[in-house]
Design a protein that fits this description.
The chain is globular, with a radius of gyration of 16 Å. A hairpin with a 4-residue loop joins β3 and β4. The chain has strands at about 10-20, 20-30, 35-40, 45-50, 55-60, 65-70, 75-80, 90-95, 100-105, 110-115, 120-125, 130-135, 145-150, 155-160, 165. The chain is an all-beta fold and about 170 residues long. It starts with 10 loop residues before the first strand and ends with a strand.
Length: about 170
């Protein structure tokens, strides 16, 4: 069991990374913190407080060793993770025109990041410089999940009960 001495609230999001014969868990908490866990040793490798609100979505890129996290705020955070997972550093804090992002997914080619908002829109950013490239407008409720097929088509699931499929910049 992985457990903290201090209360950071609920675990909102997590991603398990397989590294050699070890596993590192990235966990986003209700208090706005992200923790790196050594699963085998059951210990925290590093902790960083990113938001005053809960972490709503996160994704990690092995190639750049960067993590993207969102919350209920109008802010997106890009974090550099050291290769040995003992430190995280805030690289970029991006203010947006909207509040609340509940889904984040890096496309299979690691060129674009899709961020699903509470407003039912999906915003597409260039992963290299986090420049906003496009806004997909179809859903009427919160975007809950994002996925990509083998041809990099985006599959978007929403609270409105609909699934949309998008062929964007492929």
């Amino acid at each position: 069991m992985l457990q903290l001495d201090e209360n950071k609230g609920m675990i909102m999001q997590m991603e398990l990374l397989a590294l050699d014969n070890n596993f590192v868990l990235i966990a986003g908490y209700e208090d706005g913190s992200v923790l790196l866990w050594d699963v085998e040793k059951r210990s925290v490798l590093y902790s960083i407080k990113l938001f005053d609100d809960p972490i709503m979505a996160l994704c990690f890129d092995y190639f750049t060793m960067k993590l993207l996290a969102t919350s209920a705020t109008n802010n997106i955070k890009v974090i550099k993770v050291e290769e040995n997972f003992t430190k995280m550093e805030l690289l970029q804090s991006i203010d947006t025109q909207y509040k609340g992002s509940s889904a984040v997914k890096l496309r299979n080619d690691n060129k674009l990041v899709f961020i699903g908002g509470w407003d039912g829109k999906v915003r597409i950013y260039n992963w290299k410089n986090m420049k906003l490239l496009a806004v997909l407008k179809y859903h009427s409720e919160t975007i809950n999940c994002l996925a990509f097929d083998e041809n990099n088509k985006a599959i978007v699931g929403s609270k409105d009960g609909k699934i949309s499929i998008w062929d964007v910049y492929t």
